[in-house]
Amino acid sequence: MVVDNTTPTCLGQQPLLLGADFSLSSDTKATTGHNDLVLGHVSVRDSSWAEKLRGWRTQMGAVPGPMEVWLARRSLATLDVRLERQGKNALAIVEFLASRVEVDGLRYPGLPSDPAYPIASRQMRFYGPVISFALASQELAEKFLQGCELVFEATSFGGVQTTAERRARWGGDTVPEGFIRLSVGCEDAQDLVADLQQALDKAHRE
Question: Are 72 and 107 in contact (CB under 8 A)?
Answer without folding.
Answer: no
